[in-house]
Amino acid sequence: MYYDNFVLPFTIGINILLIYLVVKYARWIRTFSKSDKRLIWKGMFSVKTFKAIKEVFLECLVHHKIYRTNPFLGYMHMCFGLGWFLLIIMGKIESTVYHTTAFNPPYFAIFFRFFHPANETFPYSNVFAFLMDLILLFILSGLLLAFTKRIYSKALGLKKTTNHRPFDLLILTVLWLIFPLRFLAESFTSGIRGGGSFLTHTAGDFFSRFLPLDTLSYPAWWAYSSVLGLFFILLPFSRYMHIPTEIVYIFLKNWGVKQGKEFNAFSNIQLYSCSRCGICIDRCQLNTSLGMQDTQPVYFLKKIRHHRDYSVQTENCLMCGRCEAACPVDLKLNALRLSKRQDRTRITKDTYSYIQPGPNGESKVAYFAGCMGHLTPSVIRSMQYLFKQAHVDYTFIDEQKGICCGRPLLLSGNRSAATVIMEKNKAAIEASGATLLVTSCPICYKTFKEDYQLNIPVMHHSEYIHMLIKNRHLSPRQAEYTTVFHNPCELGRGANVYTAPESVLKAVSHKIAIRYDSKNSLCCGGSLANIHITAPQRTTIATDTVNAYAAYNPDYIVTACPLCKKTFTKKSSAIPIKDIAEIVAENC
Amino acid sequence: MNFWGYSISEARVIDYDKNDKSLATCLAQNAPSSKLCIGCGGCTATCTAGNLTEFNIRKLQMLVKRGENNEIRQQLHKCMLCGKCTLVCPRGVDTRKMILTLIDYLHRQSL
Amino acid sequence: MNVIIIGAGPAGCEAAFRLANEGIQVDLIEKENSTGGNLNNWYQLFPDRKSAKDLNTILSNHLQHPHIRLHLNTEATDITREENGKTSVQLSDGALLTGDALLLATGFKLFEAQRKEEYGYGIYENVITSVNLENKFINHQITMRSGALPQRIGFIHCVGSRDEKICNYHCSKLCCITAVKQAIETRELLPEAEIICFYMDMRMFGPGYEEMYRKAQEKYNIKFIRGRLSEASENQNKQIIIKAEDTLIGKPLRMTLDLLVLMVGMEASEGSQKAASQLHLTQAPSGFIQPADPHYGNNRTNQEGVFIAGCCSAPMNLTDTLADARSAANTISEWLNRNTQH
To answer: Last residue of some domain: A215, A243, A271?
Structure first.
């Protein structure tokens, strides 16, 4: 029987943790809606599970998303995630090979070097010892990086690292102690009895020269077991809850569970899945342009989790989705933020009764400029010209009376009022007889597509122009000038429209490839979703954004959203700012 | 009441001394940019609700500032929060924030 | 003793003449091929309706002075302050001037009306600026693009001024009175037309201005509506449909106009911006050069030996610009006398 009292702290710790996790997750999942539960049952026995396993491997262990954002940070997380995982797996295999039965207690593999007499060899024991040392070295190198990051965050290319609570710093210390202690315990044992490989054996020899290893090795094992046990007990109350919760989240997400309009148990699972890596902080323009460092998702979610006042954080977000696009855990950060905004409108039978459907159009294509579109008449002009050039029969449905699409209300949390407007608009659009709806405003576009469930297709004008060019209804020439493209938040990250505007711009101009292309596009600062920052602060964001694009020295900065255009043109800019429709119209 | 053939109806004056200015204070605190309004009417000119109904955002916030809070109860819910007014305001008033503050006030009152 | 003046608009010309009369050598630098600056775009002046051209002639005749050297078609490319307190100015023609003092009379730049896209300048053919209208006065003819006589004309005040949306917080001061003057001149050319001014505030700050406003209402039947234009659109007949609120009534107002005139405001000129950055001059948030003191140092800057006159420091009418130029000449000659005595 391989047993020693020092394994107790570890064993107690891991058991308490496992019981806690099972109870916590079960209680959350129990409150899921019927449809979500059905999704889970259906998804569990489908190929989605394999996809989830792959994602768990890539995200939780390899951390490939963090790696892509910041290689140093990715390597650091990989050292801990993949390293620890490999240490456990390899340890388990090693102990199984040695013991020839899989049914040994969990602690046996963890403390294998203690129980295993060094002189006793077994198949490949040297190889195992070498691998285990290699993995330990891998983890320790990550630890060194983590330590450096805490002290000099800038050295790792992070402008700002997450600020933690004292409790988080305590458990961080505990975590950081685990692997050095394992290293010491194994080295000391090796120094006395031999065994180990290039790392622990060499260290053991070295330590034995000047340290009384006989008295130190046993306490070292106690210490190692104790910090492990302590870590497991503290884990549920710390940010490291993300380690187990992220796995649960990835499975639920792959099975089709979605963040709804309410803040619910699934939101809580996301909340606990946040690793507080801090990648969102540098992505957020409220930080980079305005120096606001308390409103990024990492802090917003932290405040909710620790029951602090988060009312300002709820409102102070551009919902540009830059954080979401970079979040290594793939949390639905916009939907989470929105779920905390309150519906305060009172709906009566005559709410928005003044909205009356307009006269029916005769045409197949309905063009909707949107509220903001009326403030950028050159965009409307260009679209009208392009319709004419392509011989398209269209009706300008909001030429006289423009009704809001409802998304601005939605973004402020007032869902019930938004629903009333949407229903009225939907009825009007469907009664118009059009077979295609084209809009110039990405805000309208996103909501038409996602929330209206129209029986006709909806296209943003950039997609529509793309189609006209592809079908040879328009044959623009390629102009000599250079352009950069600012993909509006609601169009790109918001509605996943990337290729259409980019290929249109490539066709009509010399588009410069920039680091802000596609998912990395910036926010203009004009966002209707933010109800906290002031007008001058918006101008600051807009100026910074224009300057970032201007650094590429294009002849034009091109966008595809009236609101972006209005926001960008607040400050006079040396480089003209145009809509994609204007650029195409110029070359037709 | 009837005194010698004259009836006394409610006065048309803004009774600034008696009026409840707590909402005005709340507006100034929560939407401080509303203090910048010079009443140019650009917001109302561009407003869809303002063109189709009695809703007049310039007037409503002006009334609130004088403690005349009754009219917002009838009018405020007509706003669609589309933000065009914010986009034309020459003073940079965050009109959406202003309206959300008023909506919040009505919401708290109805609770 | 010599002084370099940059900019031969009214302020530069007047200051040059006054300094020359004091026996000071003046180098007057002008980037255009004639003097007069923005005054060349004007037809008549307010409030007395004097011809702008006549004034321009007087100002340029004064420059025929033995002490004045005029450099036309020349730009100041680089301005530096020397160790000894002098200022050297590199000219685009290759010459290098050194002066005991430098006077900036770099004036203003008109707001580019295209930046207010919702007003449709450059998009709708019957939207013009106040400067375009002055040109029409010079030709004594106001027509729509089609050649037809406009029946209803709207003047929009504060275009490019007092507007957070284009980051111009300042008031250009003159547009109100210019609109009144132009409305009257328009009335004289078009006795039948309806003429309406849309204003936020009427700022009649100068002598005779308020009286001119009264006369515009009484004698010339100009209408005034207090409300700011939110946006304009164009109908089939190329007329302009504007949206504003009639704020004194409290109702939104829609109106069809044949001609829309945008009263464009004043911004710091490129020359002022360039000089300010080369000489590290303090600028007001509006971009204009900040005087050392608004009352007693209105022609001095934060740099000793660098002086300002006219619209490079703030929007000014012609009366004030000329007075400011004389005051600058006086300040400079005093400063030079004091400095040479040491």
So the answer is: A243
